Automatic annotation (TrEMBL):
Keywords: DNA-binding, Repressor, Transcription, Transcription regulation. Transmembrane segments: none annotated. Residues 29-48 bind DNA. InterPro entries: Homeodomain-like_sf (IPR009057), HTH_TetR (IPR001647), Repressor_TetR_C (IPR004111), Tet_transcr_reg_TetR (IPR003012), Tet_transcr_reg_TetR-rel_C_sf (IPR036271). The keyword Transcription regulation applies. This is TetR/AcrR family transcriptional regulator C-terminal domain-containing protein. Residues 8-66 form the HTH tetR-type domain.
Length: 204
């Protein structure tokens, strides 16, 4: 048979398919990915060394959407960090099923190192100490990942509350949105609180 004009596989196709599969099923296996791509499992190994490299390709797909390369160096560090946080959350929110997989694999990819280099440079230039930077990044990332998962959670997370047993909780729930705005409001409040807390560290 003649060779197809367009190759069945390339690294971008593998990464995108793996991201889609993990998002839909919450897990990633080589046989399932091969079925998703319509090829034999052995065909994948012509392009990747194994599952770890596939996860790297998934990260690369997301990194294209979260890179801080276009930061305006003249803008305040809070604004730059907020823009990065929002783009990061947006990218992960599109693939919530993949979050547990991507969040627990070591970050060994040069393109991820380049992204963190930008964030580290931003925070060091702002005046944070070297020992503060990674805890700040980790804290912000943990919040972002949790917020991405919250976007696909039920609009009402606390239910069946009675005024008799929990009058204060009932009062605050009455003013809480019962649609997608709940997650958006929580993200906005939490991000503002984090950035305010970060800023306070500079004054110590």
């Amino acid at each position: 048979m003649p060779r197809p004009r367009t190759p069945l596989l390339d690294r971008r196709r593998i990464g995108a398919a793996a991201l889609r599969l993990a998002d839909e099923q919450g897990v990633l296996t080589i046989p399932a990915l091969a079925r998703e791509l319509g090829v034999a499992p052995s065909a994948l190994y012509h392009h990747v060394s194994g599952r770890g490299e596939i996860i790297s390709l998934m990260r690369e797909e997301l990194a294209l959407e979260t890179s801080p390369d276009d930061w305006d160096s003249s803008q305040p560090w809070e604004q730059a960090l907020e823009e990065w946080a929002r783009s990061y959350r947006k990218a992960f929110a599109a693939h919530p099923g993949a979050v547990p997989l991507l969040a627990t694999a070591p970050l060994a990819e040069p393109f991820m190192h380049a992204m963190y280099e930008k964030v580290a440079e931003l925070l060091l230039t702002a005046g944070f100490t070297a020992s503060q930077v990674m805890p700040l990044i980790n804290a912000l990332e943990n919040f972002i990942l949790g917020s991405a998962l919250d976007l696909v959670a039920p609009p009402v997370m606390v239910s069946d509350v009675t005024r008799e047993t929990a009058p204060h909780l009932t009062a605050v729930l009455a003013g809480t949105p019962t649609d997608h705005r709940r997650a958006e409001l929580a993200f906005d409040v939490g991000l503002r609180a984090l950035l305010t807390g970060f800023r306070a560290l500079l004054t110590r």
